[in-house]
């Protein structure tokens, strides 16, 4: 009986320590995975995209006209966001400051067009939500595909 209690105690201790495994996330490895996924995605969908120095891929559909957009602007946009498998997780018309709490991919990508412009951003996970899931059907390490119409910039 004592042996059983000792063995049970050891199993519980070992179980507790093995469940505390550290996250072995490798950002550099994930960046390579994301880039390969994006390159495959744009090839399969015949998208003519440019790779930004940040790792963001973009396609300017309509450049727009007017003033250059900066991160100090408040913008009004209509957008849709999808995963690479085509699942739409969000779409809306909204206004916000580009200096606000946005994913980096938007802060980099939206200023690439002017008022009236339309852009497609294919955002690697490091410029989106990274190794976390914000919910709304977006898994961790997700590459995001946004189409954004820039209605106004002030």
TrEMBL record:
Domain of life: Bacteria
Reactions catalysed according to its record: [protein]-peptidylproline (omega=180) = [protein]-peptidylproline (omega=0)
SUPFAM superfamilies found in the cross-reference section: FKBP-like (SSF54534)
Enzyme class: isomerase
Signal peptide segment: 1-21
GO molecular function: peptidyl-prolyl cis-trans isomerase activity
Enzyme Commission number(s) from the entry: 5.2.1.8
Keyword entries, A-Z: Isomerase, Rotamase, Signal
Coiled coil: none
Domain PPIase FKBP-type residue range list: 72-154
Database matches in InterPro entries: PPIase_dom_sf (IPR046357), PPIase_FKBP_dom (IPR001179)
A Pfam family annotated for this UniProt entry: FKBP_C
Recorded family membership: Belongs to the FKBP-type PPIase family.
Protein name (Swiss-Prot/TrEMBL): Peptidyl-prolyl cis-trans isomerase
Species assigned in the record: Pedobacter planticolens
């Amino acid at each position: 009986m004592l042996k059983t209690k000792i063995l049970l105690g050891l199993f519980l201790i070992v179980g507790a320590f093995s469940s505390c495994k550290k996250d072995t996330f490798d950002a550099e490895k994930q960046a390579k995975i994301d880039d390969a996924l994006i390159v495959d995605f744009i090839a399969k969908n015949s998208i003519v995209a440019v790779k930004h120095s940040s790792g963001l891929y973009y396609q300017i559909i309509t450049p727009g006209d007017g003033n250059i957009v900066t991160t100090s602007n408040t913008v009004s946009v209509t957008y849709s966001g999808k995963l690479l498998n085509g699942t739409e997780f969000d779409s809306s018309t909204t206004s916000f400051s580009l200096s606000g709490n946005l994913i980096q991919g938007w802060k980099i990508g939206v200023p690439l067009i002017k008022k009236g412009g339309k852009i497609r951003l294919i955002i690697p996970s490091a410029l989106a939500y990274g190794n976390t899931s914000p919910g709304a059907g977006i898994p961790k390490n997700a590459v995001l595909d946004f189409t954004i119409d820039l209605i106004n910039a002030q």
